[in-house]
Amino acid sequence: xxxxxxxxxxxxxxxxxxxxxxxxxxxxxxxxxxxxxxxxxxxxxxxxxxxxxxxxxxxxxxxxxxxxxxxxxxxxxxxxxxxxxxxxxxxxxxxxxxxxxxxxxxxxxxxxxxxxxxxxxxxxxxxxxxxxxxxxxxxxxxxxxxxxxxxxxxxxxxxx
Length: 160
Hints:
This protein has one domain. Helices cover about 15% and strands about 35% of the residues. The protein has helices spanning about 10-25, 115-125, 140; strands at about 1-5, 5, 40-45, 50, 50-60, 70-75, 75-80, 90-100, 100, 130, 145, 150-160. The strands form 3 sheets. Strands 1-11-8-5-6 form a 5-stranded mixed sheet.
């Protein structure tokens, strides 16, 4: 089983976080959902940054929070959102999935149009996988993470 690894923060970051802690830890939102914490990190495949894709954190049964979080992967980096704007994730245990495809929509964008759902599905079916398909499903990915009650960096190194 592969787990996200905590990356140590630099002294300067800790000093900045200490200042923020005096103001309250985590993301304070008036949406009534509760406190979310910043979750960022890297996703690599065979030691190289995953160029593009999406990462999803799916709550594991028994977690207090039943809301997942997700984010876009760009040049190996991601930041999670629950409700948007990189608002982070709720504390708890998660199964993690990664979908990374190189989709070519250009054949479906003739005359400056936007491809419809059918053509997007066709393009995705033909897309080159940037990581193995097993990482798309929570029961097959083998990826797990635990979000603590503080901001955290979680890295995932995917293998065949």
